[in-house]
Amino acid sequence: MPQELYGRAPIRAAKRISNPGCYATSSQLLLAPLVDYLKPGALPTIFGMSGYSGAGTIMENDASGKPVTKPKVSAESLGTFVRPYSLTGHIHEREAGFHLSTLRADGTQIKVAFIPAVAPWFSGIVSTVSVPLKAPMTAKDVIALFEERYKGEKLITIQKDVVQLRDVEGKHGWTVGGFQMSVEGDRVVITGGLDNLLKGAATQCLQNLNLALGYDEYAGIPIA
Predict the structure, then answer these.
(1) 3-state SS string for the chain
(2) Which residues make beta-bridge pairs with 133?
(3) Contact by Cβ (8 Å): 97, 110
(4) Domains present along the chain, CATH in parentheses
(5) pLDDT tens for residues 82-127?
(6) What is the mean pLDDT of residues 5-25?
């Protein structure tokens, strides 16, 4: 679970800590400020695009017979194409829904629809979420919820513009932006992103280690 959502005290006291998945981190951060404003029975839908480093590796033998690891997906194999995969039932879909449900005031379950895709860049995730709302809101209303939820968080950036790869690639935090409403005000679309190798993995791991060992949470993490 991202530290920014579920608090630091449980991590400091924990004996076992697991890092949240990179896609699940961005999905949870995108939806957390809105968990009590979701339209009942409707699924928030997240489309995420990740650099091919997020696809993992496979073991192969090189020309000499020595085992080596290679990316499951390469930039060459993708060309200029974005490849959707695991179109339903992705593990991060269940992970995000499970943890978001713990944030809801009435305790009811939240389900999300998540569609991942791998893209021909190395690292960085950009996710777009479409959120049906139970009552009309304005973009200012939604932004205010995000500003309140993430006030004082050093690794979270809220911006006006749609999040692009350049906003997150090689950076240690998570960025959110866009905030566009439907004409009726009953649906908001938001973009968010992080580097899957940093805030989606190593940076988050270092935060957890620092907290568990009693150090400053951000020790060793450059803060922009």
Answers:
(1) CCHHHHCCHHHHHCCCCCCCCHHHHHHHHHHHHHCCCECCCCCCEEEEEEEHHHHCEEEEECCCCCEEEEECCCHHHHCCCCEECCCCCCHHHHHHHHHHHCCCCCCCCCCCEEEEEEECCCCCEEEEEEEEECCCCCHHHHHHHHHHHCCCCCCEEECCCCCCHHHHCCCCCEEEEEEEECCCCCEEEEEEEECCCHHHHHHHHHHHHHHHHCCCCCCCCCCC
(2) 38
(3) yes
(4) 20-52+80-205 (3.30.360.10)
(5) 888 888 888 888 889 988 999 998 888 999 999 999 999 999 999 9
(6) 89
Per-residue pLDDT of 40-66, as tens digits, reads 999 999 999 999 887 666 777 777 878
Count, residues in the chain: 224
Say how many C-beta atoms besides its own lie within 10 A of residue 84's C-beta.
11
Least Cα distance to 48 among 155, 172, 190, 143 occurs for: 190
Question: CA–CA separation, 55 vs 85, rounded Å?
Answer: 10
**22 among known catalytic residues:** yes
Tokens, residue 202 = 């190593």
Given the residues 5, 11, 22, 131, the one annotated as active site: 22
Taking the C-alpha atoms of 55, 102, 168 and 139 in order, what is their torsion angle to the nearest 10 degrees? 130
Tokens of 154: 């050093």
Asked if 32 and 46 touch (Cβ cutoff 8 Å), the reply is: no
Q: Please enumerate in sequence order all residues whose Cβ is within 8 A of that of 15, keeping only pairs 6 or more positions apart, or say none.
A: none
Residue 116 has which token pair? 């991942």
